[in-house]
Amino acid sequence: MSKPQSPMTIGDLAHKTGASRRSIRHYDDNGLLASVRAENGYRMFLPVAVTQVRQIQRLIATGFSLAEIRGFPDCMRMIEGAAACPETSEVQRRRLASIERQIADLEQRRARLRQMLVEKA
C-alpha cells in the first residue's frame, strides 16, 4: 500500500517550483490548482501541485493566458513537460500562427527603420 502524500504549504510549493507565492495564489484563485484550507486558514497543496505549477509556468512562457490554460484538459495541465495532446493541438497552432505574425511585423518594422537610417547617412 502506498504512503499517503502529505500536503505542503504555499511556501514549500514556491520553494520547489521557483514560483512566487503571489503567482501560486493567483493560479489557485483562477482554478488552475486545487488547495485546501488548513485549520489555521493556510492554503495546503498536494505534491502534484509542483508538476501543475511548472506546467502552468511553461504554458505562460509560450504565451497562453490563464483563461486558455484553464480550458486545457488534464493531459496538458497535469503532466510536466507535456507538449501537446489532441484536444490542444488547434489552440497551439493558432498561438504559433499569432507569434509568427508578430515576428513578421517586427521584421518589417526593423527593415523600415534600417532603411530610414541608411537614407539619413
UniProtKB/TrEMBL annotation:
Region (Disordered): 1-21
InterPro entries, A to Z: DNA-bd_dom_put_sf, MerR-type_HTH_dom, MerR_fam
Domain (HTH merR-type): residue spans on this chain: 7-75
Keyword Thylakoid: no
Coiled-coil ranges per UniProt: 89-116
Keywords noted in UniProt: Coiled coil, DNA-binding
Name assigned to this protein: MerR family transcriptional regulator
Source species: Pigmentiphaga soli
